[in-house]
Design a protein that fits this description.
InterPro entries: KH_dom-like_a/b, OsmC/Ohr_fam, OsmC/Ohrsf. Its EC number is 1.11.1.-. The chain is α+β, with helices and mostly antiparallel strands and 140 residues long. The chain is built from 3 helices and 6 strands. A hairpin with a 4-residue loop joins strand 1 and strand 2. It is globular, with a radius of gyration of 17 Å.
């Protein structure tokens, strides 16, 4: 299956990028790099893609397993190398689950299935970064 993305320069350091979903997004450099900060930074967008990919897996599995979760969020901290080309060499991904009746064992299974089996973006990241995944439960 092929995806086509078209990214068009809008002047200065700003671009608009199409997406197969029909939703477009803007990419821009920060002011320190000649942009105006009016869009996503490309490397940070990769981290959002990782969180989104795994998040969709987990949300689907929560529904399928009929688990009680008020909400969950994914926080990612990534270390960028200092030499060019700069890339993420270490990435820590934290899944935070919130609720009063959390089934920790089954929720951990949703995370494990995502990161070990379903999330293709995770597999891509494994090619260039040391990955660490943590699951935290916050009971109300």
């Amino acid at each position: 299956m092929k995806n086509l993305i078209t990214t068009t320069w809008l002047g200065e350091m700003k671009f608009e990028s199409t997406n197969p979903s029909g939703h477009n997004l803007f990419i821009d450099a920060g002011e320190e790099n000649g942009g105006k900060g009016e869009g996503y930074r490309p490397k940070a967008l990769m981290l959002s893609g990782l969180a989104g990919c795994s998040g969709l897996d987990v949300a689907s599995l929560i529904k399928k397993m009929k688990l009680e979760v008020d909400t969950f969020k994914i926080e990612i901290e990534a270390n960028l190398t200092e030499e060019h080309p700069k890339y993420y060499d270490k990435v820590t991904m934290q899944f935070h689950f919130y609720g009063s009746d959390l089934n920790e064992k089954k929720l951990q299974k949703t995370v494990d299935l995502s990161i070990e089996k379903y999330c293709g973006v995770m597999e891509m990241f494994r090619q260039f970064a040391e990955m660490k995944v943590e699951t935290l439960f916050h009971k109300k």
